[in-house]
Design brief:
Layout (H helix, E strand, L loop, with lengths): L2 E5 L2 E3 L5 E8 L7 E7 L6 E7 L4 E3 L7 E6 L4 E6 L8 E9 L6 E4 L3 E5 L2
Parallel strand pairs: 2-11
Antiparallel strand pairs: 1-3, 3-8, 4-5, 4-9, 5-6, 7-8, 9-10, 9-11
């Protein structure tokens, strides 16, 4: 059974930092990509950052220069270092792990971790 366990969310003041972690277990075939998405109240879920098996990264324009995504391939773990946090970064952050090639395709989501940026 596949599990994605997220950690690192919490309450932080504007300008502060947080580091999110997402550890995947029960995965047999290596992911094509891992990433983070977020959903603020009343808004749709949006991409924050992704990283491929080849370590190519993609960031939302709103987080470029402030957030950094990384991965530990051996541990199937993805991290999101968030610096210079702003109130508009407040959201539930979801980890995603996916594989789009045979012999096994999959797309898994974590349960979400709350990030609140407020003074």
């Amino acid at each position: 059974q596949v599990q994605l366990v997220e950690s690192g969310g919490g309450l932080v003041q504007p300008g502060g930092s947080l580091r999110l972690s997402c550890a995947a277990s029960g995965i047999t075939f290596s992911p094509s990509a891992m990433g983070w998405y977020r959903q603020a109240p009343g808004k749709q879920r949006e991409l924050v950052a992704t990283i491929t098996s080849g370590s190519s990264t993609t960031y939302a324009d709103s987080v470029k220069g402030r957030f950094t995504i990384s991965r530990d391939t051996a541990k199937v773990t993805v991290y999101l270092q968030m610096n210079s946090l702003k109130p508009e970064d407040t959201a539930v952050y979801y980890c995603n792990v996916n594989r789009m090639t045979i012999p096994m395709k999959y797309n898994y989501w974590g349960q979400g971790t709350q990030v609140t940026v407020s003074s």
